């Protein structure tokens, strides 16, 4: 680096370099240094870093809990101990230059509104860009928008596959998504008030060999905690499945691993769940083979996933209730459905208009 203006050195020191004692803003090691400094301060104040999410810091005392989650330099503090929250804010104000923005209204572009029913999360769609690379930027913005718009998950999983070589039909598909957004710009997720924070449910579904280009299957899952939707994913599988059972096992394992992570996160928050995770899969053959290790002829090539599910079934960590295909919510994450089915499932998933009168 160049010497700062006004710094005078002798001729003997002209060939020397500067050693930084502090990380400067803009250098690639700055984020790591900042987070290390922040973590050290939080631990010094008695907070514990979560093992499930390293950006989450927790403090439990006198039967109450306070949580802080950080993204770069944006923080959200919550909990049922008002005195500890105030003490934490005062401590952070002394340690760092920070501003208290009051009750949470916006975080990373996500709008938060409160009502008598609970919390509603929504992201406002940005205006359309017309510069070079339009398709990539549009899909990138839509993917960020999908953090609160689960109704876009399957469509975006399809159009995002053509980021490097988009055609006219792919741009038309993106425009159709935008027209859909224009008709419902304020849709978001409702987190209803619920005291049962220990129940975890997963809906998994697979569209076997549905991709015309390479005949790979598409997996999708929804996870619920206490009846409220937490996470979801629609993703094409990495390999071609030779049978629908093989594809279903991979989809079940994907959703179940997400539920296990949620269980560990709840444990960090002080909610030790003793209820088994309810995994809903509408493929009867996959459920039967998971319960019965004798029927393995069709699943020799997915034995790892099969034994993983079977082990958790034996340990009473998971159960596989029966569900009809017409009630499988994850169906909208793996293939296109009729508008009536789509609207019905969105209502069940807790999607609502954030601007609708209550």
TrEMBL record:
InterPro entries: DNA/RNA_pol_sf (IPR043502), RVT_2 (IPR013103). Coiled coil: none annotated. Residues 4-123 form the Reverse transcriptase Ty1/copia-type domain. It comes from the Eukaryota. CDD domains: RNase_HI_RT_Ty1. PANTHER family: GAG-POL-RELATED RETROTRANSPOSON, INTEGRASE CATALYTIC DOMAIN-CONTAINING PROTEIN. This is Retrovirus-related Pol polyprotein from transposon RE1. The gene is RE1_2715.
